[in-house]
Write a structure and sequence with these properties.
Mean pLDDT: 97
Number of helices: 14
Number of strands: 18
Strand content: 15-25%
Oligomer: single chain
Helix content: 25-40%
Largest sheet: 8 strands, mixed
Distance between the termini: 43 Å
Structural class: alpha/beta
Length: about 475
């Protein structure tokens, strides 16, 4: 039995255009668009009609960097696939790309299968996986080819966290060479972890144990150096490179220089680097622990370079790196030793609203908002045009967004499974009103109507930006 939904009277905003149009949805996909008030649109009928007058009709957000149920620092991130994807839906995100984790000494396949099992039947929205490669060797390099074939087409390596996820330059080069051959995309956590560990040890020896020192030892120059090194290794391997959670002006400059040479180098930043700073890390009474993440928050003056990078397309994507740990019982593991604070912030529910606030504030245009939050991540990770746009044939992942509603962000009202908000008390203009995932209403006029298990695993093609 065919089901049809009609969204009438809204301003459809995609990365490419803005048009007052009606949107016809049939069997979970977008069937047609027509300018509002035209005879074509007027002839459409549907069982379910949504009035979007005075609202934006935008593609569902694609958050290409989340960590649900993620093991770190002797604990796990606080959001399960069920709670995390429900919170994502509340925030207007309809697809996440999470990270499956390889354990050192074990095959990639084992880690990926464990994450398939964690997420299966739990997600409120559609999801996919990147693969964290913790142990580069001949066996795992062969596995990379098999994963690309089954739709896991991006692989994350770490220049940070020696003894946990760290890969040395030789391992990184080998993985990049393999990706160059199989079409995969290497994602890089670019910080010089070996040097950072020296600075951590020295800071603790001086009695510098508070959260703010987390930001001081993870120097911007060590992010820039690692970014530079990753770019050069990618050039040697003739491989594309995607640098995750770029936070420092100096790292943006490395990306811009590479892109000016025409290299396939891409960059992602996150809302925390655009809206928070070392002022938060320095909050008294261990409150700064709430803001410990890596790369770390930077002094406020770095924000201008990040906004500029988003406007000039030296940074292409804004993801959240959503990896929440509760203040009570998890962040507190680092009382007396900042290096033991679990690294990560909650944010999957806040990204679309914060970036709309950036439109209100004049940092970016409406279409750029949709580009960096929906279309670019979908293209980057092989999901476009199924995801990330509103066009005939695309999945009907659609958000009705009220650009005039005002809200105050707070842990009391958010839906993430964490006991604080990184944006507590922040006033923003704009709010998600209704969300459709593959044509199913999962948020209906600010009421959750979705369910665990609606979200489907979505295999991906390779990066769609490559020359």
């Amino acid at each position: 039995m065919s089901t049809r939904t009609l969204i009438r009277g809204g301003l459809v905003v995609t990365a490419a255009e803005e048009i007052h149009a009606d949107v016809l949805i049939e069997d979970g996909r977008i069937a047609a668009l027509a300018a509002s008030g035209t005879a074509a649109a007027g002839a459409w009928t549907a069982e379910h009609v949504i009035d979007a007058t005075g609202k934006y009709v935008i593609p569902g957000g694609v958050d290409a960097h989340t960590h649900m149920e993620f093991p770190f620092g002797g604990t796990f991130s606080a959001d399960s696939f069920e709670t995390g994807t429900r919170a994502a839906a509340w925030g207007g995100t309809t697809t996440i790309v999470d990270f499956a984790v390889q354990t050192v000494g074990h095959p990639l396949r084992e880690g990926l299968d464990a994450y398939y099992a964690k997420a299966d039947g739990k997600c409120a929205i559609d999801y996919a996986f990147h693969m964290i490669v913790s142990d580069v060797n001949e066996r795992t390099l062969k596995e990379l080819d098999l994963l690309v074939e089954e739709g896991v087409t991006s692989f994350k390596l770490f220049m940070a966290y020696p003894g946990v996820f760290y890969s040395d330059d030789g391992q990184i080069l080998r993985a990049m060479q393999r990706a160059s051959a199989n079409g995969g995309l290497i994602m890089m956590h670019a910080e010089n972890g070996i040097a950072i560990d020296v600075l951590v040890e020295q800071a603790l020896a001086r009695g510098e144990t508070d959260p703010r020192y987390h930001g001081e030892v993870r120097r911007a120059l060590l992010e820039a150096e690692a970014t530079h090194r990753a770019i050069q290794l990618a050039r040697v391997a003739d491989a594309p490179l995607y640098v995750v959670h770029v936070s420092a002006e100096e790292a943006v400059a490395e990306l811009a220089a590479a892109r000016d040479k025409g290299l396939n180098v891409f960059g992602e930043t996150c809302p925390q680097y655009l809206f928070l700073s070392t002022d938060n890390l320095a909050e008294p009474d261990f409150e700064g622990a709430k803001y410990v993440c890596s790369t770390p928050l930077r002094p406020r003056e770095h924000q201008a370079a990040l906004w500029r990078g988003l406007r000039t397309n030296d940074l292409q994507v804004v993801s959240t790196d959503h990896c929440p740990f509760c203040f009570t019982g998890q962040k507190e593991l680092g009382r007396g030793d900042f290096s033991k604070i679990p690294n990560g912030l909650p944010g999957v529910e806040n990204r679309m609203d914060l970036l709309h606030q950036a439109v209100v504030d004049g940092h970016i245009s409406r279409r750029r908002w949709i580009e960096i939050a929906c279309a670019a991540p979908a293209r980057m990770f092989g999901l476009y045009p199924k995801k990330g746009t509103i066009a005939p044939g695309a999945d009907a992942d659609i958000v009705i967004y009220d650009p005039h509603a005002e809200q105050v962000m707070s842990a009391e009202t958010h839906h993430m499974n964490v006991d604080y908000s990184a944006y507590e008390g922040k006033r923003v203009t704009g709010q998600v009103e209704t969300v459709l995932s593959r044509g199913q209403v999962v948020i209906d006029a600010r009421t959750y109507t979705g369910r665990a298990g609606h979200g489907l695993y979505t295999p991906r093609s390779t990066c769609q930006y490559l020359n």
